[in-house]
Amino acid sequence: MLIDYRYHIGSFVAIFVALLLGILVGIGLAPNPDEFEDKVTMLKEEYRRTREAKMEELKALEEANRECDMLTRETVAAVIRNRLADKQIALILGRDFDRSPLPENLRAALRQAGANITSTTTVTREFVRLSQPIKQRVSERLSLYPPPGVHFRTVIAEAVAKDLAQGHPDLILDLHTAGLLKSTADSEYTIKPDAVVILGGMNDLTDAAPERIDLPIIQTLTEFDIRVVGVEAGDAAISTIPAYKAAGIPTVDNVDSQAGRLATILVLEGADGHYGTKESADSFLPPILSPDN
User: Fold this and answer.
1) Which of 90, 249, 71, 259 is nearest to 160 (CA)?
2) Is the overall model pTM greater than 0.90, yes or no?
3) Strand partners, 198
4) Please, which residues have CB within 8 angstroms of residue 250's CB and are 6 or more apart in sequence?
5) Domains annotated on the chain, with CATH
6) In the predicted model, is pLDDT for residue 173 greater than 50?
7) Please, are residues 102 and 199 in contact by the beta-carbon 8 Å criterion?
């Protein structure tokens, strides 16, 4: 069978003509260089105007936010003023917050409310981890020995809470010397507190031991008829609020905010419930009543 080359040559010619027509049509549709440059310039100008407009909007929002923050600060300061006048409040930090401003901001809010902060006590990492050598040294020095089935941290926590409630400083100061607790220079453990704020929340599971330390402290203080409030920051990676709720105390889960500190003052004043922005909260804020009510 002979191959008809005329058929193949015709096919090649048709394909070539189609490609040539496509190229010519594409060249005809493409803008010339001047038109293309004008379009790019127009797009750049539109982007510049949009960016400037958005920057103006951002500045306006930043100014509005600054004014809102100032208003919030002034309002909260006015609302909490003297609500805790003559109240003796002790603060317990369930972990070492290092350089975080959170504890000092909370202390400042308590002072604004008229409270006297009797002491600020930090549970150190040594207490949380409680290595065997430290455990042995503390047991021998303080004659603290847990009964069968009771963790040593729990025994220490209960003893600390008992002495805090009764205004006995010796054990707490001994634990301070042993490195299990830290205290601020203005702490005065001979003053019996009317209420205790426990600041919790963890970055990881090695930060604190709420079941072994915080909860025994809460239970013991409650037995001495001392009001206990559990609080934490809104950005706490691991929340201790569920544990505090289970212990039956009021809680605030966003104490790092103005609203959270306001809620803490109102709860210390007598409001019950669970407040903040997390799922564990019943509502955002307690009812704000007149201080005379």
Assistant:
1) 90
2) no
3) 92, 230
4) 229, 230, 267, 271, 272, 273, 274, 275
5) 87-275 (3.40.50.2300)
6) yes
7) yes
CA distance 16 to 173: 97
Q: Which two tokens stand for residue 154?
A: 């729990």
Per residue in 175-191, pLDDT (tens digit) is 998 899 999 999 999 99
Judge whether 120 and 106 are in contact, CB under 8 Å: no
Starting at the edge strand found earlier in the chain, the sheet holding 227-231 runs 181-183, 116-123, 88-93, 195-199, 227-231, 251-252, 274-275
- Is residue 231 within 8 Å of residue 265, measured between CB atoms? no
CB 184 within 8 A of CB 152: no
Task: Give the integer Cα–Cα distance in Å for 176 and 133.
Answer: 16
- Residue carrying the six token digits 């600054």: 66
pLDDT for residue 1 is more than 50: no
**Residue of 174, 169, 171, 128 lying closest to 151 (CA atoms):** 128
pLDDT at 292: 63
Query: Which residues lie closer than 8 Å to 249 by C-beta, 6 or more apart?
Result: 218, 222, 228, 229, 230
Residue 234 has a CB neighbour count (10 Å cut-off) of: 17
